[in-house]
Structure prediction request, 642 residues.
Amino acid sequence: MHRIQSRTYIGQPSETVSVNTTVHGGGQVSVTVGGQPLAGNQFQLPATAGATVRMQIALVGPQGASCVVAIAVVDGGSDADFLLCSVFNPAPVNFYDFSVAAAAAVATFATAKDLGPTVGTKSPTGEK
Amino acid sequence: MRRVLALSFAAALASSAAVHAQGPPPSTDSAVAPDRRPAVIVDIVDAARAAATVPVPTPFGLQIGPGNRQRVAMYLMAAKAERSAYGALLKALEAARVDKQVGSTPNTNGSTSLAMKGLAPRIFGMAVERGALTREVSGTSLTFRANPVGLIKALQGSGLVDLNDAYSRDAVERFTSRFSLAATFDISRGAEPGVFTGGDQQLAAWSARLTVINRRDPASPAYATQWRTLLAPDTAPYRGSVEALNDALGRWAAYTTWETQLGAAVTTFVEMPFAANHDVEGAASVYRNLLAEHLRTLEALPLPPEVTVALDAYARELTQLQSSIDQIYAFAGKGSLLTIDWSTVRDKAVPDLNTGTLIFEAGLGQSRKTDFTVNASESFYNSVPTGAVHALKSVNVTTQLEHPLGSALPTATLTVAARYSYLPYDTVSSTGGAAVSAAGNATGTTTVGMAPKGSVAFVQAKLTIPIKDSGLKVPLSVTASNRTELIKEKDVRGSVGITFDLDTFVSAFSGQRH
Prediction:
């Protein structure tokens, strides 16, 4: 799976996506994929090229509650996000869009990003 | 047995009227809405700063972008705060706070509290309480209370969010946050009565407090169930409104162009230098300036109708959600609290009076609407005062019930308190009033009354009326006692407290500064 832009990814049909959330400060988090609560910390992308799926992560809690999100495998590592309950954003909800493309197209995209194949040991910064 | 009944209605109401006469309280319907754009920007920068300390990669770039557009939406609302729904929401968000500590300890002259409240502030609390509005001149006390860690962080420029975040991560800071210190200055003392100088002569009392049990932390696992209710299906409309807003902004071409340009600028001028030097504050400073510049550009763009509709829906849903959040804070705020307080009251007429107090507070009932407080204390002088036979002054037990009148916020509260004091020896007590010269000027001396050994009972009823959105509360109290020598309202006496929560000021100041 590759990162197209912030919170937007492209992956192969049926590719497994891992999502880990780490909450601090008394927050509570919910993760839904395609509108359904995520059971466990993994889900599979649709099997059909051209399909899309959206993941939603919502955090509630006292001011200062936070949630670190790690999505893998992205560009050989993981992509991170951060939600924080603050004065003017007391209940953040972030959205992540996943598009499915044929394996060949995904490989071409990876080459274009000059990353090589998705398997690898790139530093888990999620950044190019 | 003598009885005394101290009434303070007339004076208190007169004083209240005087307060209004001096200038209107902040109006909720002010024609000019406060500019909260700087505060929103600070909120974004604080979030980035928090992300940087986790750390996560690109902590600044993460704050605004596809899939995360609530913060920009809030800025747009702040830019259009003349719309009543937006202005009301922003005000409600800003008013949401964690905990408060106000008032001087009951042993100081100007206090209007019979029982002492226990929860210390995390940052800074100041109260000015005025008494003796009748013939006797009482003290006007100015209390500074600080949690050492909170004060240091406030001075360092940390916002409240930073503090909460730090407390949640750092066990040492959590522990030290259990301590607080306070100093009360009586500004009627000293060479310039009525002028606060902060000098030794005006130092009327100091206290140290340790919170032993605090079940009022909304971040406690004890409140996880309450927070989880905000993720229940019945709050799905809120999340739906966020999604609709995110998508509406994403379909606005001018917005996505703006967002891309901002993202590129943040990468170049913030993230790349930050990756090289890890200077969080330096990066935050540049980020803040970038945000201010780009957001000004954005707010000049005419909003498409679809975005306006989405913003309206988001404001509506968030307002409802914030109300639920406020309820959780209120519920948590009535959790059990056990504190130990040590205070020393300084009075020229008698030796310093030390009091050790054990304070327990808890909300009663399933909804915890009634606040129950019980204090047990022992007071003794530093030395045997003239006229007394022993340094030990009294052993006291105080209990208090506080119940809100009505459900709307802010609401008036009715407080009923009783205090029993046992005096094992004949002793003395400062009446707390400064002597008055013939010309009516305070002379800076206080009077001392004899207090024969025995039992003293007080009963007090107090009505505290908050002034909406001002941070001010006006308490009106009636006190009855079987003996007069220890009661502060010796004669008919007005006691009007003006209680001010400076946490809001600290945040506001922080916002303006940034």
